[in-house]
Amino acid sequence: MAKTRNAAEVKAAKAEAKAARKAASKQRRTQLWQAFQIQRKEDKRLLPYMIGAFVLIVGASVAAGVYAGGFTMYMMIPLGIVLGGLVAFIIFGRRAQKSVYRKAEGQTGAAAWALENLRGKWRVTPGVAATGHFDAVHRVIGRPGVIFVGEGAAGRVKPLLAQEKKRTARLVGDIPIYDVIVGNGEGEVPLSKLERHLTKLPANISVAQMDSLESRLAALGSKAGPAAMPKGPLPTQAKMRGVQRTVRRR
204-220 burial string, b = 16+ CB within 10 Å, else e? Predict the structure, then answer.
């Protein structure tokens, strides 16, 4: 009797898990379709580029299949359709990403948002230092070492960066420390190129060293705290007086 009950419970659990996966998949498709519709309305070149890439790749595959002849011809057609669809999807993804970065650029909290969406093994601590004007420094630990990313007015961010580098150097020893200011000025890194800039830095430490480094730097704490920084890009013209007062009190 117990075996029958256990089997029924396992079956019910599997059915529930399957239903949850279906619901999650449906939600992702819905979100993707909504994102496509929004991007299509804002980006008039999106559909021509996607359709053009799809037709070009399918046409090239069909031409190659006809030239090769035989069974290869029948294989190249579905292969071309799959590849064409994949390239069209990649075009959509990249143009949508550029659009998101373009909208976020210059907004408070944009750099922190971009860092927290980095792909790969990065350890991000947003807002390790900040001013009442929402200039901020974020700490990133990765294979290159320690990277401080500043956002805001360069004149106010540079002293924050120097201070954090000095505090951190006492704990990390010979591990390299880098600093970056996000912006469009001379010597600054645009928001859309921040991830690429970080990934181009040389790998100087191992993942095990990253873990040890993260533990040691956690002891430094933060001069602003995550609660003092916005969770994502905020509109430039937003009324931030109340939040600024909170930051100053900290």
Answer: ebeeeebeebeeebeee
Total length of the chain: 250
Cβ-contact 110, 104 below 8 angstroms: yes
pTM of the model: 0.63
123's enclosing H/E stretch is strand 123-130
Token pair recorded at residue 237? 């013209």
**How many angstroms separate the most distant Cα atoms in the chain?**
76
Instruction: For helices 207-218 and 154-172, give the axis angle rounded to 10 degrees.
Output: 110
Residues of the chain with pLDDT under 70: 1-7, 104, 106, 221-250
CA dihedral 48, 54, 56, 61 (to 10 degrees): -170
